[in-house]
Amino acid sequence: MKALDFSSIIYGAATLTGQDRENLPGFFFRQVRDLTDISLHEAWDQADWPELIRVASQTVSDSGDLEYLTYPTDAAQIINVWKYHPQERSSNAAINYTLYDDGTASTPEKIAIFDTSVTGTVYIEYRKARPALTGEVWASATNYAAGTQVYFEDSDKIGNFYTAGSSTLDPAAGESPTTHATKWTKVDIPKIFQPFLIQMSFAGHLKANGQLDAGTVEEIKARQFLGKEVEQLTSIQRQQSSLEVVTY
User: What are the structural domain ranges in the chain?
Assistant: First the structure.
């Protein structure tokens, strides 16, 4: 996907609030991070953004009378289950399914397939899970365990959130996303959300400082930015399913 740099959100919000971007107060980063985390939830689910839709192939599993699939590890919502890859055919067969939780601790979310004649490989179309923005600013003296999220800016002040690597690639003190890129994974946020997230951060900042009416006005402006992206997607680019669906 075309991903934004999170520093653009911080410095964009700083400009709107009248802050000196070279001397931001310590609280400002956390405020923008937390406000963006909240706003990202709204943007993420607003439409079937192509940047967030994925297709995973999977072999149907059989457990007695139950045929099922497991959730892809990065899935948030299941959109459909198909007999064929939905991006490779103009006609397809949608497979009847339901979602359930089997109560296990490791992988509880399952997709039950009702048609027992469905076997072999099928295709799960889904929306990626939204990332949670929780990281603190990267500290050079810290050893980071796998899964820890940080915010890091390079020498050009381009900053993003990164997640520390696997248990065999835990970043040691001084090993930054620039110097040891294989030990970090960038947290990607679609660039199309950038104007919305900047404006929502500005709105949240105003409300946090008691300017409730002004904050509400800026929220309306922010949602107009998001609405334009939805219109661009659905009306101008006409990105809605064009598959000829054949059901069993």
Answer: 6-48+131-236, 51-129
